[in-house]
Amino acid sequence: MEVFVRMIDMLVRLYDLPKSAEMYQNVEDAGIILRRPGAYEKHLVEDFVREHFSPKWVSEVQVAFSRQPITCFIATRNKEILGFACYETTNKAYFGPTGVSEAARGTGIGKALLMKALEGLHNLGYAYGFIGGVGPKEFYAKAVGAVEIPGSDPGIYVDILPEPLF
Ligand SMILES: CC(C)(COP(=O)(O)OP(=O)(O)OC[C@H]1O[C@@H](n2cnc3c(N)ncnc32)[C@H](O)[C@@H]1OP(=O)(O)O)[C@@H](O)C(=O)NCCC(=O)NCCS
What we know:
Blueprint lengths: L7 E6 L7 H9 L3 E3 L6 H11 L2 H10 L7 E6 L2 E8 L6 E7 L8 H15 L4 E7 L2 H8 L2 E2 L18
Parallel strand pairs: 5-6
Antiparallel strand pairs: 1-6, 1-7, 2-3, 3-4, 4-5
Bound molecules: coenzyme A.
């Protein structure tokens, strides 16, 4: 039996993002650095995403590294990657993919990375951003007031090639 997962897209008003300074300060106070990865760290970010998430997300990360500035942010602590967030990868004006390692979740890293990436999208000149194929809708609604786009399921995510079975 084929299992269908709902994957709706969401819309974000980039011109009206919540203030982020305090949130970044809280994350920084916990010893976490939020920054763009360097091109020389591409393989390390890919390894993190492959280990914790999926090969398709690795492909999207590779697109982020094909741009300058690199359209990705990472969160690190003690020189270890805890999470990542990309933008302008799946499509123009799209946020994602993003993820935080399970052990580091619930400490504000996901929201801080989301804000960094959405600010990055806004700085590219977009007034609105899309969060493709969500995922944790409540997280996005609560963090940045994202709203569901009617009729966007399955959106662009059709006829996707399956991963090979080894
Ligand atoms: C979604 C994800 C990135 C959130 O990261 P996180 O670091 O745990 O999130 P934060 O700690 O910054 O949470 C920020 C807020 O969102 C809430 N939140 C976090 N995950 C949530 C979820 N799945 N559903 C609803 N609310 C959520 C938190 O409770 C917190 O609320 P608060 O501001 O009132 O305290 C993380 O759970 C993850 O990597 N999930 C797996 C990958 C994934 O689903 N990616 C998104 C694909 S579209």
